[in-house]
Design goal:
This protein is of the alpha/beta class and about 350 residues long. It contains 13 helices and 13 strands. The strands form two sheets. Strands 3-2-1-4-5-6-7 form a seven-stranded parallel sheet, with helices on both faces. A six-stranded parallel sheet has the order 10-9-8-11-12-13, sandwiched between helices.
């Protein structure tokens, strides 16, 4: 099977991370890949190069579309893929209709609640949660053409970071938040909560438009001695290995890869009831989940994890179990290949009927 993977994307982010994870997983199979992406992330481009996957870079401009469209069409004609997988709406807007020179199947991948019209020539639509699948169907896509595909997290065993390098004592509870610095992520709520957990430190790993505002809030709350802004990091496994608690207070989160990353690294998870976490996190079973924007509830959950060692061990154990059953690289490889084969068989059958 030949798969053309197309991703525009931002410099950093959850969807961008998963795109690279998907390409990495498929590189371990017998199937052939080619990638078209932006050259806006050195880590991403270098990783694709290390995997020995051929790739093209394109601009994916919303205004000057012709150069990117030309690259994609030429690559489809030369590579002759069976599947063209478009990650997110901008890539989907460049999808190429079948013609006499190519006979591929277009797939659009949804990391959120997008409109199917953004994936203009995609007949099949793949989402990371059942709730998003239901959204796609509600937008008019036939149920047979809307598919669920979980993402995965696969971390190498990491050495703990030196806390002293981040001016953080070894003997204090350390929370980590892996998050873009965006209003949707609820980091302002987490900072307010930290005032009520006076012994804890917080590392925030991410970049985004609210960096200046969140740093000012940290100063206003008198938390500068206990909060560290680390910027965007590619060593998430090391951050989680070093931390005691993973906190994920998002207001809006269609899925939330941080959930399965915390489970994979066997760290207690405290999260808010955004759509993604709410679908997978069972309160007091594999994590603690609280109402969105509830500072007191978030504080209470963090304090429970710090003080109740039995509860902490319980949610870590069950989080690891949920991860192993649904969100490993091996599970993903099996699921994505089965999905591609099912879609190809479905389209071949439809073509025969037509």
């Amino acid at each position: 099977m030949k798969i053309l993977q197309i991703m525009a994307g931002d410099n950093n982010g959850g969807a961008e991370t998963f795109f690279l994870d998907a390409v990495t997983a498929l590189s371990e199979t017998d199937h052939q890949q080619h990638v078209i992406t932006r050259a806006n992330n050195d880590f991403k481009v270098e990783k694709i190069r290390q995997l020995n996957i051929p790739f093209d870079v394109a601009g994916f401009s919303n205004i000057f579309k012709h150069p990117t469209a030309k690259i994609i069409k030429e690559r489809i004609n030369s590579f002759q893929p069976d599947i063209v997988h478009h990650y997110m709406g901008r890539a989907g807007s460049y999808s190429v209709a079948n013609d006499a020179l190519n006979n591929h199947v277009n797939i659009g991948w949804y990391g959120g609640y997008y409109k199917p019209t953004r994936f203009k020539h995609c007949n099949h639509h793949v989402a990371v949660t059942q709730d998003i699948v239901d959204h796609i169907i509600a937008q008019g896509v036939p149920a047979s053409n809307a598919h669920l595909l979980h993402i995965y997290a696969e971390f190498e065993k990491a050495e703990k970071l030196d806390r002293a390098a981040f001016d953080t004592p070894d003997d204090v509870p350390l929370m980590v938040s892996l998050s873009r610095l965006h209003e949707k992520k609820g980091l302002d709520v987490l900072l307010k909560s930290l005032r009520q957990v006076p012994e804890a430190y917080l590392w925030i790993a991410g970049s985004g438009p609210l960096e200046k505002q969140l740093k000012q809030q940290t100063k206003d709350l008198g938390l500068e001695d206990r909060v560290r802004f680390l910027g965007w990091r590619n060593d998430r496994e090391a951050l989680l290995e070093t931390a005691d608690i993973c906190v994920f207070p998002s207001r809006y989160e269609p899925f939330g890869a941080v959930v399965i990353e915390a489970w994979a690294m066997q760290k207690p998870l405290v999260t808010a009831k955004a759509a993604g976490p709410k679908a997978y996190v069972k309160h007091e079973e594999n994590g603690l989940i609280v109402q969105i924007d509830d500072v007191d509830a978030l504080t209470n959950a963090i304090n429970r994890v710090i003080t109740d060692k039995d509860l902490c061990a319980h949610i870590v154990k069950n989080g690891k179990k949920a991860y192993g059953e649904n969100f490993t690289r091996e599970v993903f490889k099996k699921n994505v290949i089965a999905l591609y084969e099912r879609i190809l068989a479905q389209d071949k059958k439809s073509a025969a009927v037509a």
